[in-house]
Specification:
single chain, 220 residues, alpha+beta, Beta Polymerase, domain 2, seven-stranded mixed beta sheet, 9 helices, 9 strands, 17% strand
């Protein structure tokens, strides 16, 4: 379990020192929440890279500093993980361009990201709280709902959340994703949280089921 943001920063410095070519890493999960004071600890660090070259370089650097591949368990069924690597207290979930099978690293996600620091061979950027919220509505790990609650309580730019969701559905054709986020938002509403974008999400969700029914009729 990682309890100090300094541990994460020190890890990135170690990764950077082991790299042979320059790469960019986007951090999108509990590690960011720990750094921003929204979470007291995190079990894993979720990283996304935007190219096959960066993916290979980061993977090789992690192996050079002692990380080993770990068997992926059923809690990560929706993740479509490229790699899950572990070393002592650190578990890294590494994705290449796409996270959770459906969630692409978009241009707007990159624009919303915040630079943590730059090293000689490594740039580390933190994804926005809005994009982390979307990411966590895709997963089924025990701590993800509490993390979503913390993010809502801190305050989210809901226009950015729904805009990114609509962009993901339109641009990447992964409309089934809206049913997953809809389930999570339903659960959060039942806990008494205000979700200002529920009407828009319901419209997207209804469209998905209507389109699915049409496709099934054609097949029948």
């Amino acid at each position: 379990m990682i309890k100090r943001s300094e541990q994460i920063k020190e890890l990135f410095e170690e990764i950077g020192s082991a790299m042979k070519t320059k790469a960019v890493i986007y951090v999108i999960g509990g590690g960011v929440l720990l750094i921003r004071g929204l979470k007291p600890s995190t079990k894993d660090i979720d990283l996304v890279v935007d190219s096959k070259e960066d993916f290979e370089e980061v993977t090789n650097a992690l192996r050079r500093i002692g990380f080993k591949a770990k068997k992926i368990n059923r809690l990560y069924e929706r993740f479509d993980l490229a790699y899950q690597l572990i070393r002592e207290d650190f578990q890294i979930d590494l994705f290449c361009k796409k996270v959770c099978s459906k969630f692409q690293l978009s241009k707007n996600m990159k624009k919303r990201s915040e630079k943590l620091f730059s090293l000689a061979q490594l740039n580390v950027l933190l994804c926005s709280n809005e994009d982390i919220f979307l990411f966590k509505t895709m997963t089924e790990r025990p701590g993800d709902i509490p993390d979503c609650v913390s993010l809502i309580q801190r305050g989210l730019e809901w226009n950015a959340v729904i805009s990114e969701l609509e962009h993901q559905v339109k641009s990447y054709g992964e409309d089934v994703w809206v049913t997953w986020i809809g389930e999570r938002l339903d659960l959060l509403e039942k806990q008494g949280l205000n979700i200002p974008i529920m009407k828009e999400v319901d419209v997207l969700r209804e469209k998905y089921f209507d389109d699915l029914e049409k496709r099934q009729r054609k097949k029948g």
